């Protein structure tokens, strides 16, 4: 059961890293299709309910000046050239594309709060409850969850609107870890609650 949706004006849905190159390179095709379908259903329900919708994407400037060679996670992205700035690959999947009125937060690292204005946007809008959805569960979702917990937000993760190339990690996080500091719901439960 999903609680805290009676205060929709204080609730935000954050969709993270649903970008073409991430879906293509970090998930099997069938899993990528499934997670986008689940996240899209939540996205549409959140829009219709009037909740704040925020999109987060990882991107870099031409030449990747933000990437240090010591950063193992990002240095190979730079070397492979798979996340070329302004390319189709870096763009958010068409099914999850932001509307003009929906903020898009650009980040240079894993978590959605570090070195971004996400917290400023949430506080300016009076947001207390946030629902997280994204790829990958063990990267952007986990890091953002931990950051949001430290910032005292009321947290929920939408389990099947998150995905990871490592199913063991995804299962552990969604079935064991996240519930220690927040709520975990399925996309259907969230959609049903939004329609009430």
From TrEMBL:
It comes from the Bacteria. Gene3D superfamilies: Isochorismatase-like (3.40.50.850). One of its GO terms (molecular function) is hydrolase activity. Keywords: Hydrolase. SUPFAM superfamilies: Isochorismatase-like hydrolases (SSF52499). Residues 11-188 form the Isochorismatase-like domain. InterPro entries: Isochorismatase-like_dom (IPR000868), Isochorismatase-like_hydrls (IPR050272), Isochorismatase-like_sf (IPR036380). It holds the Pfam family Isochorismatase. This is Cysteine hydrolase. It comes from Bombella dulcis.
